[in-house]
């Protein structure tokens, strides 16, 4: 049994928050697998990244209106129905359909997990997405502008590590264990394939020995980060804040603790939301991370209450 599995049910009693950061339409449109074993993820161009952010905002606004009965009572909105997904056509689709009839179910899921875990990973990488020499956009503004982090590979990997860990926690709660390991391994593989592609294409590190050395260092940091987050998750929010301060913000002495509290609240809300999602939603990559800035009102509420109580005059005991 995983160290984290017994902790997940306790979130029901400790956190009664609504699912605000997950279970929304995915930000990345699904794309067919190009080749049986694709080893690299093509970096998203700036225009594509901007369009995906706009698309995700429009999807979430439509979902909000759909959950509000006052806004869905008009005949025009009730009669409209989403279009049916089109069946893929062409020689590749025909070959895939023919091969799927003879493959065992375990092999089919290996290919399926490889494709869907890539879509889950792409949602994780968007959180800290950057391009050298270009302004940041979308949800990455919180990390690079609000928190004052420099848009570089080191900070991007730290932000991605945090979101990759969130998905891994949910994978560990899948049954059977062999299935959870398969999905988790495919998910981590996409992360490190993408890291190598970024080093080669974006940062022009073409020397293999240097690239492999950097990948080993990033892998060691990834392992340490996952272990520290696991321990912090068990021990409580103070430990979680410390782990995030160490691994994401690199123990900055000028850290804005209000921003740190917002990230802790954001992580706890995501974990609570992921626990409430069924496996079908997770395995079809219908997971959407929000923005830590949305936690500002929650953090301000709980930080203002103690100060208000301290400022209030205490009653004298008779």
UniProtKB/TrEMBL annotation:
Residues 52-81, 306-318 have a biased composition (Low complexity). This is Protein cbp3, mitochondrial. It holds the Pfam family Ubiq_cyt_C_chap. GO terms for biological process: mitochondrial respiratory chain complex III assembly. It comes from Orbilia blumenaviensis. One of its GO terms (cellular component) is mitochondrion. Residues 22-88, 298-318 are annotated as: Disordered. Residues 145-287 form the Ubiquinol-cytochrome c chaperone domain. The gene is CBP3. PANTHER family: UBIQUINOL-CYTOCHROME C REDUCTASE COMPLEX ASSEMBLY FACTOR 1 FAMILY MEMBER, UBIQUINOL-CYTOCHROME-C REDUCTASE COMPLEX ASSEMBLY FACTOR 1. Belongs to the CBP3 family. InterPro entries: Ubiq_cyt_c_chap, Ubiqinol_cyt_c_chaperone_CPB3.
């Amino acid at each position: 049994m995983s160290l984290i599995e017994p902790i997940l049910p306790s979130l029901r009693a400790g956190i009664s928050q609504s699912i605000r950061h997950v279970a929304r339409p995915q930000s990345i449109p699904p794309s067919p697998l190009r080749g049986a074993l694709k080893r690299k993820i093509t970096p998203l161009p700036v225009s594509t990244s901007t369009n995906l952010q706009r698309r995700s905002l429009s999807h979430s606004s439509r979902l909000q209106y759909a959950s509000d009965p006052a806004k869905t009572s008009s005949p025009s909105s009730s009669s409209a129905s989403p279009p049916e997904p089109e069946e893929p056509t062409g020689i590749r689709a025909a070959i895939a359909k023919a091969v799927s009839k003879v493959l065992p179910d375990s092999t089919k899921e290996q290919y399926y997990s490889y494709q869907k875990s890539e879509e889950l990973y792409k949602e994780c990488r968007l959180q800290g997405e950057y391009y050298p020499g270009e302004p940041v956009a979308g949800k990455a503004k919180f990390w690079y502008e609000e928190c004052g982090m420099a848009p570089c590979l080191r900070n991007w990997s730290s932000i991605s590590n945090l979101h990759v860990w969130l998905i891994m926690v949910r994978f560990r709660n899948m049954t059977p264990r062999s299935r959870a390991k398969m999905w988790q391994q495919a998910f981590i593989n996409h992360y490190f394939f993408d890291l190598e592609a970024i080093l080669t294409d974006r940062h022009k590190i073409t020397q293999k020995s240097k690239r492999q050395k950097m990948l080993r260092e990033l892998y060691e940091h990834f392992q340490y980060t996952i272990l520290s987050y696991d321990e912090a998750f068990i021990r409580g929010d103070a430990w979680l804040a410390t782990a995030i301060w160490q691994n994401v913000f690199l123990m900055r002495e000028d850290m804005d603790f209000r921003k740190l509290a917002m990230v802790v609240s954001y992580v706890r809300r995501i974990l609570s939301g992921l626990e409430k999602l069924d496996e079908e939603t997770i395995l079809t990559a219908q997971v959407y991370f929000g923005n830590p800035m949305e936690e500002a009102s929650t953090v301000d509420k709980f930080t203002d209450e103690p100060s208000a109580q301290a400022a209030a005059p205490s009653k004298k005991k008779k």
